[in-house]
Amino acid sequence: SEATNLLTEEAKQYIGRYRVEIDCKDPFVACSEGTANFIINLLPNGVAHRSIVHMGKITFASSHQYRQDHWSYDAIHHQIILHRESGVQFFYFIDHENNIIMDLDKIAHATAINKKFFNTHPLPQHAHLLKKRSSIS
Asked: Three-state SS for 123?
């Protein structure tokens, strides 16, 4: 189905690639040693791609199948919301440089689906800041 999210003009400034290096001690990135790059691409059509790159290996953060995630901008709370295909939602604060920072409290408790998901999946240990790397046109 061609369910394209229509982004508001305000949301379009957040289109781009965001990344953070996360220590493997954080179970969120599921690696044993060193660090992993957690990357989120927010595309102009409302699609979001997440990936974790560790030691040159790429694993997609959802599972082994490709999933179609979407994103939106919440103007009231000034947050980016990543809507995973599974129904889990990730919330990110936006800082003054348009980087995004995990809102762990909201991620853990915002919805019944999220609460259930984080009973069996690790919540990130820190409110990681993902730096905006580039705009995607």
From this structure: coil
CA–CA separation, 34 and 60 (whole Å): 18
pLDDT digits (tens, 9 = 90+) for 82-125: 999 999 999 999 999 999 999 999 999 999 999 999 999 999 99
Kindly tell me the sign of the dihedral angle through the C-alpha atoms of 38, 43, 45, 46: positive
Rounded CA-CA distance 46/69 in Å is 9
Give 50-78 pLDDT, tens digit per residue. 988 887 666 655 444 456 799 999 999 99
Please list, in sequence order, all residues whose beta carbon lies within 8 angstroms of the beta carbon of residue 105, skipping any fewer than 6 positions away: none
Based on its alpha-carbon atoms, the radius of gyration of the chain, rounded to whole angstroms, reads 14
Indicate the SS3 state at residue 93.
strand
H helices of the chain, in order, are 9-12, 104-109, 112-120
